[in-house]
Amino acid sequence: MVSTRSAARRALGGMSTRLSPAAAKAGPPPRRQHKRAARRDTRRSAASQASQAGSPGSPAAAPPSPPAAAAEEELALETLDARTSLKQGMRQLEERLQAEGHACIVGVDEAGRGPLCGPVVAGACHIPLDVTIEGIDDSKELSEPQREAAYEALTTHPRVRWAVAECDHATIDEINILQATMLAMRNAVASLGGEGAAPDAVLVDGNRRPWGNPEGKQAKGGIRPADPPPPAGLRKCIAVIKGDGHVRAIAAASVLAKVHRDRVMQQLAVQYPEYGMEGHKGYPSAAHKAAVAKHGPSPVHRLTFRGVKEHVR
Fold first, then answer.
1. Strands 120-126 and 105-111
2. Backbone phi, then psi, for 123, in 5-degree steps?
3. What share of the chain is helix, strand, coil (3-state, %, to 5)?
4. CA terminus-to-terminus distance, the chain
5. What is the pLDDT of residues 139-176, one digit of tens each?
6. Is the pTM of this model over 0.85?
7. What is the CATH architecture of 13-282?
8. What is the pLDDT of residues 235-253, one digit of tens each?
9. What residues does each domain of the chain span?
10. pLDDT at 52 over 80
11. Distance CA 121, CA 99 (A)
12. Crossing angle of the two packed helices 248-271 and 144-156, in degrees rounded to 10
């Protein structure tokens, strides 16, 4: 049981990333700035955060970003509903973008927005159009063995470029789950690296893009800072509603994020066996909520989430 939020903050590092072998060749970026400094630098439009290669817990980093004004002028933003716009196969959107001149089209998705504990994880994946990976679909539609097989196929293919990035429970509590998810997505894209062109088109599952949103008011009265500038070279970002079931690159990213997060939760289950994390993976099942009520939050629970905050002592 924890009595203060500081105990939870000590349990895990704030960000970590895993890269494909191709991306790892590029070498690790510099160390990440402290979260408060990163938000200050975002307001000054001087830098954005990214992650360093390694296992969960690795420090995160980012190369300097171009001035916000110049980057935002070049970034084309778009939103589409895959259910009505994409009816000609799961590579239709990628084929369109390649015909428009984009060389590195990256799908992005997340896993772990809803759980009461553990990190939120984002996956980023580029699959060349002449590469076919069998068994790729929305991770929610695949069984665990199918996801594991798809993950293995993606992460061992020499031409597939991929990365995953985490935001831990303490970061989620500090900046909220939406902002933590967007941060993890930005870090995953920034960490892709490797040989070949830099990402110049990003396809994000859902209706919210991780770049291009101005400063605004939050529902509870706070101020949401403007998004940091996009990484150098990024020319288009498309939010694709229901994209994980209609765009191959997004489906691949969903598999990467889901499998990585499930493995993290299995590790946490060994550390905190009384919560049964190996089964519910942190989601708010009846058994999970009962365990929190009985034992109090673990050091990796999200203390601002309903079902947990009521039991913080």
1. antiparallel
2. -115, 145
3. 40, 15, 45
4. 8
5. 889 999 999 999 999 999 999 999 999 999 999 999 99
6. no
7. 2-Layer Sandwich (3.30)
8. 999 999 999 999 999 999 9
9. 13-282
10. no
11. 31
12. 110
